[in-house]
Amino acid sequence: MELEERVAALERRMTALESTAEGAADGVVESAVESAERPVPEVTDSPLWALESLKAQLAADRGDRGADGAVVFTGAVRLPTQERYEWQLGAFTGQLFEEDWADAAESLAALGHPVRLRLLREILGGRRTAAELAELEETGTTGQIYHHLRQLTGAGWLKTVGRGRYEVPGARVVPLLVVLTAARP
Phi and psi at residue 4, in whole multiples of 5°? Predict the structure, then answer.
């Protein structure tokens, strides 16, 4: 493994760890210690096992934060590159309605172009350099590709990891897949 690839792999791991720590500081993501104290949800034959577990946790909440419900998304994925990501994020409904939804517009807009979605898929699949992405059919000129990469980087869906190398930050892999899943017709 080349030094650049090793450094990039270490940066991905650090980003994932830092994101978990930042989320925990905001009270959004549970730490491993906190989650170890709770019983592991039982996967049942019910197609709604995750929802049933969320409702049970809300009912057991000692405060009234969950009185109006909550939203949780989670995932444990292995990419075609064999990288693994596990992620969980949740928010109480009341918290979501207090926030300004316009703050999400730039991030969502960056995903609103078919070429950008293709670039993200290719990057998750292992094509990491601008040169590799420029070789793809129907993605436009090199200048157009760089424009799309800048849009995705500015919105936090990509980060640069060396000269002309891009990757989806570890903390954004599962959220990206969740957004794509939710956007299905």
Answer: -60, -40
CA–CA dist 132, 150 (Å, integer): 16
Phi-psi region of 57 (alpha: psi -120 to 50; beta: other; left: phi over 0): alpha
Q: Is 162 left (phi over 0), alpha (psi -120 to 50) or beta?
A: left
Strands 166-167 and 70-78: unpaired
- Please report how many Cα atoms fall inside a 13 Å half-sphere around the Cα of residue 52, on the Cβ side: 10
Tokens 């990757």 sit on residue: 167
Residues 6+ apart with CB under 8 A from 184: none
101-140 residue pLDDT tens: 999 999 999 999 999 999 999 999 999 898 999 999 988 8
DSSP code per residue over 117-138: HHHHHHHHTT--BHHHHHTSTT
**Against a cut of 0.85, is the pTM above it?**
no
Neighbour count for residue 137 (Cβ, 10 Å): 5
Cα–Cα nearest to 124, from 173, 183, 86, 74? 173
What whole-number distance in Å separates Cα of residue 96 and Cα of residue 73? 14
Rounded CA-CA distance 90/178 in Å is 13
